[in-house]
Amino acid sequence: MERTFLMVKPDAVQRNLIGEIVSRFERKGFKLVGAKFMKITNELAETHYQEHKGKPFFDNLVSFITSGPVFAMVWEGKEVITTARKMMGKTNPQEAETGTIRGDFGLVTHRNVIHGSDSEQSAKREISIFFQENELIEYKKTVDDWLA
Ligand code: RTP
Ligand code: MG
């Protein structure tokens, strides 16, 4: 089953949005398989966002993501990678549709509430840098029988 890495960013933790964000993915029908409330080190931030190294916003991005605790999660389900990205909305909250997480709760690109893996390859990479294999829990949810 497909898995993705999602993270409630420091702005959203400060604004008490962890529950709201978790709730959206739960209600959609995805399954939480791992979660961690943590502070990201500079080294982890640079590894996580390595594709953006050298871009003008990179230093600010690293400062922001390390500025306070985040809630890192692994979610599982059918097409969870692309569906979670749709539920998040566009990178710039001004362009994100109402009804998406960034559209409903974000104002600016540099504080855009949530991170989500953008491909199967980045999901695998991001899950492995944030979680040990034994921190991901395999379990059966009977509600799954009603989804697909
Ligand atoms: P994320 O990786 O955080 O889920 O965001 P994303 O895929 O929607 O956007 P991405 O292109 O990966 O950019 C990563 C984060 O960098 C900041 N950013 N600033 N032009 C800019 O000033 C700019 N572009 C990107 C955003 O905070 C974005 O979430
Ligand atoms: Mg990205």
UniProtKB/TrEMBL annotation:
The modification Phosphoserine is found at S122. The modification Phosphothreonine is found at T91. It is an enzyme of class 2 (transferase). Keywords: ATP-binding, Cytoplasm, Kinase, Magnesium, Metal-binding, Nucleotide metabolism, Nucleotide-binding, Phosphoprotein, Transferase. GO terms for molecular function: ATP binding; metal ion binding; nucleoside diphosphate kinase activity. Its main location: cytoplasm. GO terms for biological process: CTP biosynthetic process; GTP biosynthetic process; UTP biosynthetic process. It catalyses: a 2'-deoxyribonucleoside 5'-diphosphate + ATP = a 2'-deoxyribonucleoside 5'-triphosphate + ADP; dZDP + ATP = dZTP + ADP; a ribonucleoside 5'-diphosphate + ATP = a ribonucleoside 5'-triphosphate + ADP. The active site is at H115 (pros-phosphohistidine intermediate). Its EC number is 2.7.4.6. It is found in: Cytoplasm. Residues 1-138 form the Nucleoside diphosphate kinase-like domain. ATP binds at K9, F57, R85, T91, R102, N112. GO terms for cellular component: cytoplasm. The keyword Kinase applies. The keyword Metal-binding applies. Its cofactor is Mg(2+). Homotetramer. Belongs to the NDK family. NCBIfam families: PRK00668.1. Major role in the synthesis of nucleoside triphosphates other than ATP. The ATP gamma phosphate is transferred to the NDP beta phosphate via a ping-pong mechanism, using a phosphorylated active-site intermediate. This is Nucleoside diphosphate kinase. It comes from Gracilibacillus oryzae.
